[in-house]
Amino acid sequence: MMIVAMAFAILSALLHVFIFYMESISWTSERTRATFNMSAEAAENTKEMAFNQGFYNLFLALEVFVGVLVYVFASPAVGLALMLFGTGSMLAAALLLFITSPDKRSAAIKQGALPLFAVIALVATMTLIFLV
Questions:
Q1: Whose CA is closest to 53, among 111, 116, 115?
Q2: Region class of 101: left (phi > 0), else alpha (psi between -120 and 50), else beta
């Protein structure tokens, strides 16, 4: 079960690295503007906000990557906690987007599906560990 949990956690982190790229590096590009359905003017006006938000997503991804490495090479309990906190934060952000922005629910589902599966698998792993 832990391999499944780590796979979903890593996929969640990779998605958030991609979101970082779109928000912090390619925000004003035609492709990213099309993804977020915004004009060149809107992209230019929100570039600073997106840059900072992109780094937020990168830091969540790094937390999960560090959690995987710590789990494998140092302390499974600490690694599991880092992965759970990182993917849980990703899931919470997606839920907030889903609740507060009905027009962005499709994006929220895409953003939150992998973290949801990771959280479920991580909690199941924790449950199995504590039952043994």
A1: 111
A2: beta
